[in-house]
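Dear colleague,

Thank you for sharing your sequence with our group. We've completed the structure prediction you requested, and as agreed, I am returning the results in plain text so they can be pasted directly into your records. Please verify that the sequence below matches your submission; if there's any discrepancy, let me know and we will rerun it promptly.
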Amino acid sequence: MAVLTLNKQKLSENFRFLQDLFETYSVSWGVVSKLLCGNKLFLQELLDLGIKEVHDSRISNLAMVKRLKKDVQTVYIKPVSKKNVSKMVEFADVSLNSELETIRMISEEAGKQGKIHKIIIMVETGDLREGVMGDSLVDFYAEVFELPHIQVIGLGTNLNCLNGVMPSTDKLIQLSLYKQIIELKFGREIPWLSAGTSVTIPLMINHQLPQGINHYRVGETLYFGVDLFEEKVLEGMHGDVFQLEAEIIELQEKPMVPIGVLASNPRGEVTEIDESLYGKTAYRAIVDVGLLDVDPKYLLPNDPELELLGASSDMLILNLGANHQGYAMGGTVTFSLKYMGALSLLNSNYIEKRVV
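Please find the predicted structure tokens below.
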């Protein structure tokens, strides 16, 4: 069985880097745990860092967080469906919202459970995922303001998650102005301006964060140390908190061109033949991970000499070149991961998870 490892020390150092960064700018933040897919072992490592606030898009994951650490503040970070309102109110202290009907249901359910449920109203700033349109925001808040058992603790926005719209100083100033307008009109403070996710961190580092932005929701930069503007690892952070170790289950010298009549494979792909490779051979290794677990495009072999040739449902094929380069049957190949690769592997029941 292939193994996904989490490096405890590197995760801790990434966390400390971000904690120091946010303290420098007097910004509070919560850790997005959805990448971990509710894995108890990895969630415990996360909570042991001293995290006070955990964000997730799955209620079952928040339930696990509450079982592991009851006093941590939990935040549900997508619009909740009607059938899940009760469970969401039970396990989430805060939720992100953009639909008035949904907030009314949350208010009613919070009353039944004897709770005050805190919400962040999401504002549309251009990426066209969730969010109230700016010209409707004051009227929207006026309706929410009247609801019992609801406390509005922030305005928030999401960028880059759907259409790739990048955050900018102008967009965040716009969010700050919405907050000021509402506070002046209704005479009530909104504590948080939740500027966004990992993609907004470079604005802070480059001193482009508008005054008033005081809350972040961070996942990818914590786990991968990445500057999403430059698409590189930030100096002082680690990009390899997660690693995949896959066992070699076949290693043989084979022709470089398939033999026979070609049709589409189960993925609907037809192999294109490079005629210059006829008659040539190379060593090919098969490892015990496949499309059922992860898309190969999200895998980065730690050995730059290895070439990913393709994958079937349960096997990944690698080109080792003219010699086997010291690899052997039963040995392992190690991969670093992109975010979506780690997410797929964490969601796979066929991959062992281990802390190192």
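Summary note from our side: The domain at 7-233 is CATH 3.20.20.10 (TIM Barrel).

Kind regards,
the structure core
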